Amino acid sequence: MSDSIKILTRLKEGEDLYVLMSGCTRNPYVECDPETFDDYVIILLDAGMARAELERLHKARIPVSMARMVQKQRMVFYTSLYTMGVNAMLVKEREGSTLIQVADVVKRMDPSQQKEGTVWIENPQLHLTSLYFMQRMRSGGKMEMTEELAQLQEEMSVNFGRGNFLVPLQKEGKGIPLIRMGEEKYQPVFTDILEFQKFNRGNVLRPVVVSADRIPQVLVADACGVVLNPMGVNVPLRIERGNKASAVSGAASTKPGPEPGRGSEPGQGSGPGPEPGQGSEPKPEPETQKAADAEQDALPESARTCLCG
Q1: Using an 8 Å Cβ cutoff, are 240 and 161 in contact?
Q2: Please, which pLDDT band fits residue 264 given cuts at 50, 70 and 90?
Q3: Contact 77/69 with Cβ under 8 angstroms?
Q4: What is the pTM of this model?
């Protein structure tokens, strides 16, 4: 049995795995291979190696933590890599490292196989760019706009303008949750159903699909923008309201809002927040506002992958 086959078997079955999680995004820590340009997460096969990798990254002032992944969590985890725009996993063992393609571990469901009337909402390029942006922005303690960050910010803005998003509404009534950041309020939007489910733990919300050009129209009066995936990458984006023509033409701009800090929550101002695993997580702040007409209910399935044989 080749090493690659052994690793593939290990990823699907057997003992627990360890994943490096970013303290900047509450998502798996993502890197890009400079030669192959694969975007990958780091998987370690034992706790000792995971601790050594943590120490290496901490010395580089990269805030990461270690998460243990048991067997029953793997399908959802591998599915989430697709929605994050991640195409590979760097598997580290004592004998060395092997880059494994996500598609070799799990296969995606064909969108054409969905039930009639369902909508497939994902924004992998936006999600991936926002992960890189926040990993760079929030690492090292000093936050300043570099040329690299400016490029990532521009890419985020372009990808946001092309996207369709899930906007939460209360199941009962027409309330829209808002998130407070300092003195400002932001309306949560989600790149995919997995991110929405993290926020909707009490199952009191329903998602509706809104295209980027309609965001200024559905933005409630008290909100100065949207916050992308508040339970994950947590990117606040200011939205400049405009007339219908300017929104459709893309003139409605998106700009990063106040820096919420690592693990920040509603009510906190700028600066570092609690470390990962400490403090409470963002919760919806119910405020009743009249909702704009929704395009259609988002009913994508939460898992659209199957393990490869």
Answers
A1: no
A2: very low
A3: yes
A4: 0.78
